[in-house]
Every structure is written in structure tokens, then in C-alpha cells.
């Protein structure tokens, strides 16, 4: 009986659908996933050999007899086993399917059995050549087509009588090449999607791990920064003192400090370390410790900061630097003696005249160079005078249109609220900055300090 090629093809495609369902189920097993991860064990290899061997046998039983031969998709399972599991799994599955086919006998049993064994072996060889990387959908389909063409060649070479072998090849070659290629396409597509899913999941896990690491780093930076800020604001006879540090999400290195010098003198400082995160927080801790240690030993504002700069520069291996304003407040004389190392100049509001004065002085940031020149200046504080110290997180705060808060808005806020206490002035400035920014995220620390003469 002569079988039309189309009938054979449709029958084999029908069997392929069953194998596809089996293939999908196989790819969802933990053993298959272990093999994809190249975590080979005796157990998972044996299980996959048995599974793919069984699918190969199913490919034989679901075949169609044509002139004493069987048109089938038996080679599909060993090919796949080799491509994803290497030569051991491919050859093992091929031997199961091949030996089973051999004992079914028929004049094509030898070439068909041999082709099935070689299908697994060749698939495994490609696995080795690709160093365990899956060949891809197109490569897998091409391999299947070539393997089935080789199967047909073996049949012509080994099957006898030759005339019958030719008749079989003429009838089954196109259906078998197409159906095995189609089955390989579907299976390879499933495997490729699974690999992409796993890669996506791995990238997602890496992303979340990095996000968690970043969160931990920011929390650590925040904790470091906050631990080095003063626990309490000192009470000063004849003066009000208040301070605020509002850290951004990406923590910087702002700090302020109050340093006892003598019974009637206290050092005040505000600073801003370059950079963000843990490095900035650690550099801030170093800078604050060095400045404090030097300040407690000397009432000389220039000498204190120059010595501190030499020590900071020696440790500034990462190219970081710190801008700093340091002053000594004399409670008895009501004077403020200061130096400015490249920091935003504080603003002094004169209570009697309403005049605003910028406390400028020549100097550069600490850590930039070993020897620096600093200019010392002194001002007299009278009743109602107010000095507002701040970092650039105040003036450079941006709204949704990327406009900066700026010095003019800061000056206006100070003038309009100069009658307030030091604490209330800080709250007014904070409210003004946050209101100006609106929904725009805070990208830099906001640090303020207010000193008011009573």
C-alpha cells in the first residue's frame, strides 16, 4: 500500500503535538533545570536519559509503517537530550531508543537504530563544541534537518534490498525531515524561552540584591552621619543656637558641630563633604574628628584648620574634599572669629539696620592641597543680630522646573522672619525650601545652623 506523503506528514505532526506536551512537562522538572544550570549529578543524568529514552520509544510506537519500515520521530528525543545535556545524556537516550528499535526488526532496523544512537551522540558533540551553550532555535532546527537527512542516507547505504530502501526513503524522507524539524523547532523554542526566563529572573535577582545593598549602604551612611552630629544644642549665655540636618535619600556628608574651647568660648563649624553615600559619610566622620581634636587644643582658628587640612589631605586618597566654615564664638566679648575654607559664606542679619552681610573670607576646601592660606576675620554681634550658616543643599535645592532655591529666596526668608527665635528661623527656612521644591525629590542634604544674639 502506498502512503501519500501528505498523509504521513499529517500523521507525524499529530504525534509531534503529543511529544511537545511531554517536552513542556520535562522542561518544568527540577532535573531539567539542574542540567540547564550545568549541575550534573548521577541521579539527574540517569533520570533524563530514561525520560528521553522513553520519549524516543514513544516516537517509534507512534510511527507509521511504510513498506516494512517505520516513519517516525524517534530521533527527536536523543537529539534534544544531546543538545541540552551533552554526550552522556544524548548517547544514553539514543541507546535506549536505538536498541528498542533494533529488536523490532525489519530490513531497516540497523540503519534506523544506528541513526538514533548517532542522533544523541552528535547532539552531545554540538553541546561540547558550544561549551554547554544551547545552540538556539535556528541551529537546532538545522541540526534536526541534517540529522534526518543523514538517517535517510544511512538507510540507503545499509538497508537491503536496496530497491525497497529507495522506496522507503522516497516516501518517508520529506515527512520525517519536516516533522522532526518541526518538533525540534517547538522544543528548541520552549528551551530558549526557559533560558531567557531564567536569565531574566537572574538579572532581576541581581537587580534586587544590588538595590538591597544600596539601601543598606544608604542606611549605613545615614547612621554614620547622624551618629557624628551633636546629641544636643548647647545653651549659651546671651545667645540662641539651633541646628538642623535633613539628609537626602542619597546621603551626603554634611555636618555641623559645637566644640567647647574654654569656659567663655565655643567653636562652631558647618561643613559639606564632596560625594555621596558611605564614602562621603566616612570622610565626613574623619574630617569632623580631626577638626574637633585640633580645635579643643587651640584657640587659633587659622592654625586649627590648617593643621586639620594637612591631616585630611594625607588621608584624602580618593580625591574627596570638604568645604568648611569654622568660627570661635566669644561669649564674653560677643565676637565671632572665623575662617572659611571654600564653604558657602554664612549670612549675618544686622538687627539694628536690617542689613545683610556675607561672612566671606579667603580660603579653599580642605583636602585639595597640603598647604593652604586662610584669612581670619572677626565680627561683633549685637542684640538682634542673627547669623545663618547653611550648606549648598539649601540654595541649590531645585523645583520641578529645575530652578534653584538660590540665595535671593534665602535672604528674603531671613529678612521677613528676623524677629523669630533661632529654632523658628530654621523651621521657616526649611518650610520655604521644601515648599519651593514641591514634589521634586531632595537630592542633597539640607543643613542649617542659626546663631542669634539676645
UniProtKB/TrEMBL annotation:
Membrane topology: Multi-pass membrane protein
Molecular function (Gene Ontology), one example: phosphorelay sensor kinase activity
Subcellular location, record wording: Cell membrane
InterPro entries for the chain: Bact_Sigma-Reg, PPM-type-like_dom_sf, PPM-type_phosphatase-like_dom, Sig_transdc_His_kinase_LytS_TM
Alphabetically ordered keywords of this record: Cell membrane, Hydrolase, Membrane, Transmembrane, Transmembrane helix
BP GO annotations: cell wall organization
Domain PPM-type phosphatase: from-to ranges: 238-453
Pfam families: 5TM-5TMR_LYT, SpoIIE
Transmembrane segments annotated in the record for this chain: 6-26, 47-70, 76-96, 103-128, 134-160, 172-195
Gene3D superfamilies registered for this protein in UniProt: 1.10.1760.20, PPM-type phosphatase domain
Protein name: PPM-type phosphatase domain-containing protein
